[in-house]
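Treating backbone geometry as a discrete language has practical consequences that deserve illustration. The sequence in question and its structure tokens are set out directly beneath this paragraph.
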Amino acid sequence: MTKVLFISLFSCLVVMNQASLISRCDLAKVLHQEDLDGFEGYSLSDWVCLAFVESNFNISKVTENADGSFDYGIFQINSHYWCNDYLSHSENTCHVDCRELLSPNLLAAIHCAKKIVSRAGGLHNWAEWMMHCAGRPLSYWITGCHLG
């Protein structure tokens, strides 16, 4: 019984360790430093909401899609269009290796997200943002964050 309990506990710790989470305010600070507040008309709160609904602030999140493509990182950027994962055909519009989108410094993910938003559709390219963030009051996403 002790052995089974130990294995179960160890498995939970391994799964928890695979997630690389960033706090809401730490993310807001990085996004602010990278001039995303007001970028293409979207507020800092829009970006923080996007990160939450897409990845729950998990920088290392990778999701497999039904078409065989994968979504990477805090903004869940798709490998078919935006980055190269070397697993399937990719347009690689951001000219980036998908693994770079998992970097804790977030710069590759931010630069690629800016490229996506600069094209037609803006944040509307993310279905989760459309369903959970668009047209809603979002200022609470940065409440209490000291961005100075």
